[in-house]
């Protein structure tokens, strides 16, 4: 399902959005939501920048998102992050 289709259908529940994602992909997704660049994600999760970039690319493909902005929207819709919430640990 494309990001546009999921947005048009209304907010997806967290289990639907996160289904099929690995634990590490969920961690990367949360970091994208708080605005971290690939290099920052790498430092936060002890990954190389190239590996962080690969995870973000996989998330874009798996979730049918056009760009990082759509990933952030999906993060909020899923409940993975909330407005004004603390950054992921």
UniProtKB/TrEMBL annotation:
Molecular function as annotated in GO: DNA binding
Family matches, as CDD domains: LuxR_C_like
SUPFAM superfamilies to which the protein is assigned, alphabetical: C-terminal effector domain of the bipartite response regulators
GO BP annotations, alphabetical order: regulation of DNA-templated transcription
PANTHER family: DNA-BINDING TRANSCRIPTIONAL ACTIVATOR DEVR_DOSR
Keyword Methyltransferase: no
Pfam families listed in its UniProt record: GerE
Positions of the HTH luxR-type domain: 14-79
UniProt keyword annotations, A-Z: DNA-binding, Transcription, Transcription regulation
The name this protein goes by in its record: Response regulator protein VraR
Entry-linked InterPro entries: Sig_transdc_resp-reg_C-effctor, Tscrpt_reg_LuxR_C, WH-like_DNA-bd_sf
């Amino acid at each position: 399902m494309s990001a546009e289709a999921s947005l048009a259908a209304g907010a997806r529940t967290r289990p639907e959005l996160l289904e099929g994602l690995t634990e590490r992909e969920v961690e990367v997704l949360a970091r994208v939501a708080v605005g971290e660049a690939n290099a920052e994600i790498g430092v936060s999760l002890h990954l190389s920048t190239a590996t962080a970039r690969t995870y973000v690319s996989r998330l874009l493909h798996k979730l049918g998102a056009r760009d990082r902005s759509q990933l952030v929207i999906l993060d909020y819709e899923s409940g993975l992050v909330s407005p004004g919430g603390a950054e992921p640990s």
